[in-house]
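stuck on whats below:

***
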Amino acid sequence: MVSTINFITSILDVPREWIFEHYLNLTCRLSGQTVKLKSVFNLSEKTESMYIYFDETKNYYRFKDFSSGYGGDSSNLIMYLYNLSRKQANLKLVLDYSKYIENNNYDLVTEYRITGTYKVNDYLVRHWNELDKDYWTEFQIGTKQLNKYEILPLEYYVLTKNELNLQNSFSIKGSYIYGYFKKDGTLYKIYQPKNKEKKFIKITNYIQGSEQLTFQHKYLLITSSLKDLMSFNALGIQNIECIVPDSENSLLPDSLIAEYKTKYSKIITLLDNDKAGIDAMKRYKVKHDINYIIPPSEKDIADCIKLHGIEKTRNLLFPLLKQAL
């Protein structure tokens, strides 16, 4: 990612996750989980009483420090840490993040796992509408593929948390909410493409595309998302089936790779062309000797089709496919 200080002009450009990860020296990426640590406001504390948690009602990360009583959002954290006003804290964040990305990549986590706090316990499937059609057809994805991969539009979904024998629930409603289902009807993921902070809610583990494999094709392609898988299928390339790892931040299990190698002549990867995607493809190459293709022109194959069309994308991709295979 190429960035300069001129690109960061607002606190809205600073990822909230980065603020907590950077200033609290967290050793893990924030992806929906709750993190517990010792208070940064009470250095004599010996027990962990500070919580970094994803607030489902507000749709972003917050903190609560029971040792000092401080709490709030990411800007509040900086206000308390450096004794600043909110305006001063936001200015510091803009400047610090600008300096950080001059020499570092920061890839946003778009897939969140609901763990321990709120869980999806209900949803309502609705009818497809023109907004859905406009969104999916941009990527050359139509009804046939949406049905094949068990994707349905949702009117809403309900998040519920049980705490102190009380149940707290609220519903998320809006356009562009889609449920990803297994063939037995189990909801395993929710996709919200217009939600910049949380596009995915992962409900249960599932290798996407696994139930649709026929093992009648010569090659297997590992791609980064179900949308990319369906867009690739739209290219009409013969003898290739596709599959997607359980999470965009994880690789397929070694045992599964070994099994697929007995069923296909060759396996290749086509993940995103950002740092995270390229690093993952390189790991597949080192661990399993799997060749990879870096998406031509755009971040992923779906965006390439959206911006350049089927024919141009096919022409860009064919030489890379032949080389990888």
User: Anything to note?
Assistant: Residues 301-324 form the longest helix (24 residues).
